[in-house]
Design brief:
This protein has about 200 residues and is α+β, with helices and mostly antiparallel strands. It has helices at about 5-35, 50-60, 65-70, 85-95, 145-160, 170-204, and strands spanning about 40-45, 75-80, 100-105, 120-130, 135-145. Strand 4 and strand 5 form a beta hairpin. Helix 5 runs antiparallel to helix 6. The protein binds guanosine-5'-triphosphate and magnesium ion (MG).
Length: about 200
């Protein structure tokens, strides 16, 4: 496929990523401006690279003309939270928004993947206005804590290093690390609620 054609396909997805990142970053600012704690700590976004799209098409036997329907993460947004409880708040914020329609939700936090991966995934429909008029497209939103992000980032670079065939003894250590992340996230939540309790009794 010609590079110009790729550009035409991916352009609306680039716009969508920019718009949605702006919107979530603005939510952070709105919280801060009101002196409120923001359940969103950080927002990342990317459009899938052409080489990853081609890889995925080959692996999942997807025709090039079907990529927009069948690859739901051409546009990807990642929302990083400080605490596990924040994730539910972010999910509620997204469910309540008029400009995002939910296609699918997957809770890999309550049900960890066999690799040890944990995150809350949503596929949403989002409409961008282009030269050809409105275009409704799909986006993948991954919501996770900073600790879950640490794990997923390290595991992802190991997958890359080992060309997706991580040796068993390392897989096992990653599973142990995933358990440690659960303990860490819970411990941080406990610390936070103790701080909040202390603040309340201090005010009284
Ligand atoms: P793909 O995995 O994208 O082919 O589609 P799927 O339908 O299997 O979706 P799934 O929800 O399993 O994964 C979507 C995305 O989540 C991936 O593209 C990754 O970004 C992330 N992800 C899923 N599993 C893992 C994992 O084991 N490790 C890491 N680091 N990321 C993962
Ligand atoms: Mg997968």
């Amino acid at each position: 496929m010609e590079i110009q054609l790729w550009r035409e396909i991916l352009n609306p997805y680039e716009l969508a990523v920019k718009e949605v990142m702006t919107k979530f970053n603005h939510l952070i600012k709105e919280h801060r401006d009101r002196g409120l704690y923001s359940p969103i700590e950080q927002v990342e976004g990317r459009v899938k690279s052409i080489s990853s799209i081609l890889d995925k098409c080959q692996k999942k036997k997807i025709d090039l003309e079907d990529i927009e329907d069948k690859i739901s993460d051409l546009a990807g947004i990642r929302i990083i939270c400080q605490f596990v409880e924040d994730i539910d708040k972010v999910v509620e914020i997204i469910r309540a928004r008029k400009d995002m329609e939910i296609k699918q939700e997957r809770d890999y936090i309550r049900e960890m993947k066999s690799s040890g991966y944990r995150s809350y995934h949503m596929i949403i429909y989002y409409t961008v206005d282009t030269l050809d008029g409105p275009k409704k497209l799909q986006m993948e939103v991954q919501i996770r804590t900073m600790a879950m992000n640490f794990w997923a980032t390290v595991e992802h670079s190991l997958q890359y290093k080992y060309k997706r065939e991580i040796p068993d003894h390392i897989k096992e250590r990653l599973l142990n690390a995933a358990d440690a992340i659960i303990v860490l996230d819970n411990e941080m939540s406990t610390v936070r609620s103790e701080i909040m309790d202390a603040q309340i009794s201090f005010r009284i």
